[in-house]
Design goal:
Bound molecules: GDP-alpha-D-glucose
Shape: elongated
Distance between the termini: 32 Å
Number of helices: 25
CATH topology of the largest domain: Rossmann fold
CATH superfamily of the largest domain: Glycogen Phosphorylase B
Number of strands: 29
CATH class of the largest domain: Alpha Beta
Strand order of the largest sheet: 5-4-1-6-7-8-11-10-9
Oligomer: single chain
């Protein structure tokens, strides 16, 4: 099954010192134990990865590593530490990661410290990760990159290892497009392109995934289809994988004697009092100031609870070398002092505050002892503390008060969900929690516990890795249609030996790229020369088959020895002859359709009407992508109803809605040309939905090639319009000696 390579900013390993002896210690962090448990459960099914590697920045010096790495036996991963220059690391970690991405992605734009050298350092460190990894990567490896510090890495790996299997998981929120767009252009495009180097991108919630897809659409102009994106020549999936916890570990924690002892001490100490508990890293996103204000308000609003309740508030030191963090610590401590000073008595203090990292047993005991967990971040990607509390309530008693702005609120909706900045709401929720009947507490707990035990962290790992492997399989299926060199060679060979050939070529998006305004997509001299060279071969009939009107085709290409088909077949000009109309009807119908389209122009800035001889077209390529698409569905709906039982049809094209006479389309025209000519070789290329009519009508009689992605009736696909021109040029080259032997 190949190897699993995990990449995270920090290595979850550290070096312990005992006298002169150094030893490596694996951290008990969630991710390591989750992956370890997953691998154990898979190996029992004989599906295990052959090896596990972990790459990350070391928090120990290189000389200590040289000693320890010699005697590695006790860890579950092969470790590949990165040793970085301290100043560079600081600009990347404290700088770009935690003073730009962290505040912005948690909706604190005013705290973002825009410094160009932070981004430079971020690029350099991501590059250092790539340089470390690329030589290690083998064909069957599964690469899983974690979090916001490494958003550029997937693309860097992809550039060198195009076939690699790469997953990326973001542990923090992905902000709404409106916020993400405030980053400088180079940064935001770089970050999105970086992530799109992956095959699977994971988020905690549906909203974060949608925000990402929206940003990709608005900033890179790449559309998504449900959760998939076609980017360059790959299908990428962006989906939600809400991270979970080791449910059993927390649920059974109190079976451990040491935890039990902590628990008994806590209960004895606060006998007769209700315990409210919270534990967070020191971070402005965790809403500590608002939480304290709400508790203060609660003590004022519900004075009967004084002396009957304690709030055990544990803050874990974090990032205390960043100014925004140290300032908060002082403010929090001042506020705690003020509240305690205001209402404490000689025997009671409302807030028990500690600034420390608790040992696991004590944390588990506090979870179990707490009557209420008060978890009110202002933003949080997920928030594992909330889930751990629920799992720890083994007697199914206890109430979770949870911020609706934490990702966890999506799954834990039996909690009392609150707006963390609304002190009145939080205060009322505290009172409600403290007075909630036990059977209601249990009903709520049972549902939440069921959900967490069903989707625990092992399930989370396996879900992500299974989907990553599914995406790879999907990509391979898609590749089946992709025009590879071998098939191009076959087409070339067939072309060279054919006596009569017909080339049916769409114009916009196939021979030329799309322009903002249709009139700007004029052919350049290279294209005109290419078409002339192809047409000058007496065995060839080259047909430009387009939705354009005759006048434009005539102006741009009328002097070349081509056959031209305008407006999807409404009129045509055989090679060397005059234009002919397929249908000729009065165009009064346009007077009815035009005002409707005009209304849509008014309601969708950037859209416009193109009037052709036999067609009215409403273009929405230059509009806001979502608005344009929605309006186009409305327009199609209106027109389809209006045109029922008439001779007109509505055509849903590529960023254009057209109305024209029914009874002809590119398929009917293409088939007629091929039937008349009876060529030995037919090549048909197009990018639009209207070209699908040709692909379907010609079936096996042609080599059909669709430019770009998506479902198609064509036999092959190419991902860029440039490839069309390359193929056409190649057809004219003579076959070199035995070039296609074996094809
Ligand atoms: C990021 C995202 C997302 C805390 N204090 C102690 C302690 N902890 C453990 C908890 C929990 C973890 O640390 C904290 O996890 P959170 O999810 O609450 O928060 P972040 O650190 O900000 O994590 C977050 C997470 O990534 C996972 O994707 O949920 O939204 O910001 O496991 O138990 N553990 C011990 N002593 C402590 O004092 N032993």
């Amino acid at each position: 099954m190949g190897r699993l390579i995990i990449i995270s900013n920090r290595l979850p390993f550290s070096i312990d010192h005992e006298g002169d002896q150094l030893s490596l210690r694996q951290s008990s962090g969630g991710l390591v134990s989750a992956i370890k448990s997953y691998i154990e459960s898979e190996s029992s099914k004989n599906r295990a990865f052959t090896d596990k590697l972990w790459v990350g920045v070391a928090d120990f010096p290189q000389n200590e590593w040289s000693v320890v790495s010699e005697q590695l036996t006790s860890v579950d991963f092969q470790i590949n530490p990165l040793f970085l220059n301290k100043i560079l690391y600081k600009d990347y970690y404290n700088g770009f990661s935690n003073s730009v991405l962290w505040p912005l992605f948690h909706y604190f734009p005013s705290l973002v410290d825009y410094q160009a050298h932070y981004y430079d350092a971020y690029v350099k460190v991501n590059r250092a990760f790539a340089d470390k990894l690329i030589p290690l990567i083998q064909p069957d490896d599964t690469i899983w990159i974690h979090d916001y510090q490494l958003m550029l890495l997937p693309e860097m790996i992809r550039a060198e290892k195009p076939e690699a299997t790469i997953g990326f998981f973001l542990h923090i929120p992905f902000p709404s497009y409106e916020l993400f767009r405030t980053l400088p252009a180079e940064w935001k495009t770089g970050l999105l392109r970086g992530i799109l180097g992956s095959d699977l991108v994971g988020f905690h919630t549906h909203d974060y995934a949608q925000h990402f897809l929206q940003s990709v659409k608005m900033i890179l102009g790449v559309d998504s289809y449900f959760h998939t994106i076609q980017y360059q020549d790959r299908m990428i999936k962006a989906d939600l994988f809400p991270i979970s916890i080791d449910y059993k570990k927390f649920n059974k924690a109190c079976d451990d004697p040491e935890t039990k002892q902590y628990y008994n001490e806590i209960k004895n100490n606060f006998e007769g009092k209700k315990i409210i508990f919270s534990v967070d890293r020191l971070d402005y996103t965790k809403g500590l100031m608002d939480r304290l204000s709400a508790f203060d308000y609660f003590l004022d609003q519900y004075p009967d609870w004084r002396e009957k309740v304690v709030f055990i508030l544990n803050i874990v030191p974090s990032r205390d070398d960043i100014q925004a963090y140290t300032e908060r610590k002082q403010q929090i401590e001042q506020k705690i002092g003020t509240i305690n000073g205001k209402v404490s008595t000689i025997t009671w203090q409302p807030i028990i505050y500690r600034y420390t990292h608790l040992p696991f047993n004590e944390l588990a005991a506090l979870y179990k002892a707490a009557d209420v967990a008060l978890i009110t971040p202002l933003r949080d990607g997920m928030n594992l503390v909330a889930k751990e509390y629920v799992a720890s309530c083994s007697a199914r008693k206890g109430v979770l008060i949870l911020s609706e702005l934490a990702g966890a609120a999506n799954e834990l909706n039996e909690a009392l969900l609150v707006n963390p900045t609304d002190v009145i709401e939080v205060s009322n929720a505290i009172n409600r929690a403290l007075t909630m009947p036990v059977d209601e507490q249990q009903q709520r707990m049972i549902l939440m516990q069921q959900r967490l035990s069903d989707y625990d962290v092992i399930k989370w790992v396996s879900d992500f890795l299974d989907q990553l492997s599914n995406v790879k399989q999907e990509q391979q299926k898609q590749q089946v249609k992709h025009l590879d060199d071998r098939t191009s060679s076959q087409i070339h060979l067939h072309y060279q030996i054919a006596k009569t050939r017909c080339l049916l070529l769409d114009y916009d998006g196939t021979l030329v790229p799309y322009a903002k305004q249709p009139k700007d997509a004029r052919p350049n001299e290279d294209l005109r020369t290419l078409l002339t060279d192809l047409s000058n071969d007496p065995r060839n009939l080259v047909v430009i088959i387009s939705g354009r009107e005759a006048e434009t085709l005539e102006n741009w290409l009328g002097d070349l020895p081509l056959m031209l088909v305008a407006e999807h077949g409404a009129s045509f000009k055989p090679k060397g002859e005059q234009w002919q109309q397929t249908v000729s009807i009065p165009d009064q119908w346009k007077n009815e359709i035009r005002p409707i389209m005009q209304l849509f122009v008014t309601h969708c800035v950037g859209s416009f009407i193109e009037e052709k001889t036999n067609t009215l077209a409403w273009h929405y390529r230059n509009t806001h992508p979502d608005l344009g698409f929605t309006r186009s569905r409305e327009l199609i709906n209106n027109l389809t109803q209006l045109l029922q039982n008439t001779m007109l049809q509505v055509v849903d094209g590529n960023k254009v809605v057209e109305v024209r006479m029914s009874g002809f389309d590119k398929g009917i025209m293409a088939l007629k040309i091929v039937n008349d000519l009876q060529p030995d070789f037919v090549l048909c290329m197009g990018d639009d939905t209207t070209d699908e009519d040709m692909f379907k009508a010609l079936g096996e009689r042609a080599y059909s090639i669709k430019v770009s992605n998506g479902p198609t009736a064509a036999q092959y696909t190419v991902f860029s319009q440039q490839k069309v021109l390359q193929l056409l040029k190649r057809l004219m080259l003579p076959i070199v000696n035995k070039q296609y032997a074996g094809t």
